[in-house]
Amino acid sequence: MQDPQTTVPDAGAGVGGTHRTTTTERGAFCLARCSCGWSGPARRARSQARTDAERHSGDDR
């Protein structure tokens, strides 16, 4: 079975951003990942993993 993934809007996508973030569930945990290779910490709260992804996407500004 594949892990469910949710695409988080990339804050820089409209301005030529190269980061594409997703959240992935691993058992009771959720973590954010990016196409650049970055991975956030495992979180129990999906909302916190999404926040990690949004913060990462905004790091290039």
Question: Could you explain the architecture of this structure?
Answer:
The protein has one helix at 46-57; strands at 5-8, 21-26, 29-34. With 61 residues, the protein is of the alpha+beta class. It has a 3-stranded antiparallel β-sheet, covered by helices on one side. The radius of gyration is 11 Å and the shape is globular. Residues 10-15 have low confidence and may be disordered.
Query: Quick one: biggest sheet?
Result: 3 strands, antiparallel
Mean pLDDT: 78
The overall strand count is 3
The main sheet orders its strands as 1-2-3
Provide the succession of SSEs. Answer: EEEH
- How much β-strand is present in the residues? 25-35%
- From the spread of the alpha carbons, the general shape counts as globular
What are the low-pLDDT stretches, counting only 5+ consecutive residues below 50?
Answer: 10-15
Number of helices: 1
Indicate the structural class.
alpha+beta
Q: Give the C-alpha Rg.
A: 11 Å
- The end-to-end span amounts to 37 Å
Share of helix among residues? 10-25%
